[in-house]
Specification:
single chain; about 190 residues; alpha/beta; Outer membrane lipoprotein wza fold like; DNA polymerase, domain 1; 4-stranded mixed beta sheet; two-stranded parallel sheet; about 15% strand; elongated
Length: about 190
């Protein structure tokens, strides 16, 4: 009977061998691999590149390389887009997808339930004021920030970096530095 099915047994052995090689290759390529930079080409600007980390509730979190001039939307698209558990309402409110990405930044997308937990435990640190969600009154309590500057901060949201307070809300650098320890983004 084995002679009649020799080709089928051969295919079975070959298939099992190929599966074993595939599993071995998968284990050896993922172990010890800290970060993989994925090359993308979202714009026509050639030459200089930026490297951006996209993390959280996206389909393929990782570190990506884009041509200079790429937008946040390009980075999210490069990471496969938002995962089903992503907090879409938070993204719509807090992420400016038209913003040009800067080299070395991290774009973090929280999951719906994670955002609730972040607010509950104050992940940004006890006593910090979130520049993307704070009220005018909270911002007004900071050194050198009056009601006019607080309103400018609120009007120019969202911020991807605390340093953007200088360029977007026209906050003086010395005021930013004096308050830096008290500020958070998310």
């Amino acid at each position: 009977m084995a002679r009649r099915h020799v080709w089928q047994i051969g295919l079975l052995v070959l298939g099992l061998g190929m599966m074993g090689i595939g599993v071995w290759q998968l284990r050896t390529t993922t172990e010890g691999e800290a970060v993989q930079v994925v090359e993308t080409n979202p714009s026509n600007t050639q030459g200089q590149a930026v490297v951006v980390e996209v993390a959280g509730a996206v389909l393929r979190p990782g570190v990506y390389r884009f041509d200079m001039g790429a937008r946040v939307a390009d980075a999210l698209k490069g990471a496969g887009g938002l995962a089903p558990e992503a907090d879409d309402a938070w993204v719509a409110k807090m992420i400016n997808q038209a913003e040009i990405v800067k080299d070395g930044i991290k774009i973090y997308i929280p999951a719906r339930e994670e955002q609730v937990e972040l607010k509950a435990v104050g992940v940004a640190g006890a006593g910090t004021i979130n520049i993307n969600t704070a009220s005018v009154q909270e911002l007004d309590s900071l050194w050198g920030i009056g009601s006019a500057r607080a309103q400018a901060i609120v009007s120019n949201r969202p911020y991807g970096a605390i340093e953007e307070l200088v360029s977007k809300a026209k906050i003086p650098t010395d005021v930013l530095e004096k308050n830096r320890e008290k500020l958070s983004l998310y």
